[in-house]
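Students often ask what a holo structure prediction actually looks like on paper. The answer is less mysterious than it sounds. You provide the chain, you provide the ligand, and the output is a string of discrete structure tokens encoding the 3D arrangement of the protein together with FE3-S4 cluster.
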Amino acid sequence: MQVTVAEHAGFCFGVQRAVKMAMEATENHPVYCLGQLIHNPQVVQELAEKGLKVIDDLSEAAPGGTLVVRSHGLPASAIEEAEKRGLQVVNATCPFVGRAQKLAAQLVAEGYQVILIGDPGHPEVRAIVGSADGEVIVANSPEMLRQLEVKPEVALLAQTTQDFAQFQTCAAVLLSKARELRIYNTICTATEKRMAAALELAKKVQAMIVIGGKNSANTRRLAQVCRATGVPTYHIETEDDLDPQWFSGFEHVGVTAGASTPKWMIEGVVRKMMEMEEQKVQQANEVEASAQLQEEAADKEVAQAGEAPAEATQEAQPAEPEDANMEAQAFPTINPGDIVKGKVVQVTDDEAMVDIGYKSEGIIHKGELAFRPVTSAKDVLSVGDELEVYVEKVEDGEGNPVLSKRKADAARAWVVLEEAHQKGETIEAPVIERVKGGLLVDVGVRGFVPASHVDRRFVDNLEQFIGQVWKLKVLEMDRDRNNVVLSRKVVLDEEFEARKQELYETLKAGEIVDGEVKRLTDFGAFVDIGSGVEGLLHVSEMAFSRVDHPSDVVSEGDKIKVMILGVDKERERISLGLKQTLPDPWDNITEKYPEGSVVEGEVTRLVDFGAFVKLEDGIEGLVHISQLANRNVAKPDEVVQSGETVKVKVISVDPERRRIGLSIREVEQPAKAAQAESRPAAEYQQSAPEVTLGDLFGDLFTEQSAEADNTEAKEVEAESSEPENAASAEEESTEAETAAAENPEEEGTEAAAEEAQE
Ligand code: F3S
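The corresponding structure tokens follow.
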């Protein structure tokens, strides 16, 4: 049978050191240890024989004696008390444990909520907690952390014998809960190495023997790790616990040992196993020989025993205790996985040197500065910059710690992202790249914004956004898959809603605001009056004159000033006016168009009761049918046509009702009268026999004509005595019908008539 001892089996550096210090201390009696020096009953017994007395309380120690502090350490208060009691203290606390104690105390003093992953009942854990005045939360599972209410600033430590995978899971849980998380990997590398070596060996052998105290946590974990491979595993304290039956039929058995197991004990176990194997072979030979010849058997047995001895090999000697480099490792300040603060002391194109308080400066290679490709380290860092870095390796081949800014940034970024995601908060990030289906943004890690979440409306050219800094919301994230999906559209939607509500609250009718024409329709234009909030500028509110189509007045993209005409919060509608912001053409109307003046205008509309004539933009007057000509007119188009330019006389102006009464007849009449006056009387006389009154005055004397004139005279009289337009009640009724036909939405014909005239 082959027996192989795993690498890194047995005494670790810390235990070796503690045992040595305790041995030396026993030279001066009395000497005490508060609790067992290490978790190995045999070693404790050996030390006890040399005079080291294990006590449970300091009161058991005689003043003047020596107290050896166990490798797991003691709370600071216990050491203080020992000194007060007159004991000389020999501090054999493992430096790795000491570092965790120091960190805990320091971080608590800095205001961090310190969480220690470990076994709350383990002396090492109690010592770390005690070194920080009890202000350390001990958690033994990620589930416990999920339930834990954490403060914004958290620091995470681990018991030195913790499983690294478990520690990582705990860190991931806290990353999602704490705003700032400082992670200190205080797991002892000796433990990790021992575990890894045992695991590797367990996969190769048919059985594993794990040596160490049953009270040793790291030995129990070692046995668990071996068992997890499926290989039969036996946890023993001494060689006396070995059972030869365990190895029956096995050709290869592995041995490992916990950190508190001395080398001599491992050697004893291996020796015993070899002896057992020898005995087994011997017994087998005896049986074989007895089956053949009794006398020859004994000789053969001896010969066979000499030929096939049990084979014992050792992959490596427990390296740590005697390792010459141990002293150098005695006071480490960093471990792989730590995130520490540093200051840049030198930058070249390819790397940056960072002082992190270690014995030598750490190196960040260019590729570890950011997740994006970096052309030169100088583009990212400058001498004097302070930053957080992740410890990749404690030392490279030249003794420098190998650091990563990228990983430290990512750790922080995930914390920020998780918090932003949970609270629905906005984060800012630059757009860095166009990729298939969207854009990439730098959120400390690579973030993806789908094209559909780039803007409130679909955008075709995504390249235009590269280099912009956006406000974003986290839609989904998966740290394990390094996946973050963000949205700018959600932010824009929220801003739009907020702005809209604000506008609805603050906008007042009559206010003039800046706007931009966004869309045209047949009935008006939609105008953005800020942050995407749009109001409707109806075609009827675009100009004082009639507008056939909105495009006659505005175009998309025009920047205009508009007046708020109305705000309907319930229906979320804002009505706007443009003409209200323009000079009113009716100002000084009586000066521009005094009664009696003759002006030119364009016929814009013909209605049954007359013709509308535009004098200028926004000013239209009515030529009543009776004022169209010096004769009876049945229909306006007998005299004028739409679009025709005519001369009209202003016969009435009503600025309040915005009405102007015009007359074509009165422009023509004086001309006719003048013509009549200039004709010589002889002419009339000469022609008198042939000319009748009817010839001279046409149908002026017809009954109908006389009646018309009478009516008109009355209207003009009424017009001059009342502030009414020339339009009679009959006309208004007709106009109302016309207006109602033109504005079917209007309910009252009177209002429609008003509108038609206005
Ligand atoms: Fe120290 Fe690591 Fe041993 S913490 S006591 S060297 S297992």
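The two ends are 116 Å apart (CA to CA).
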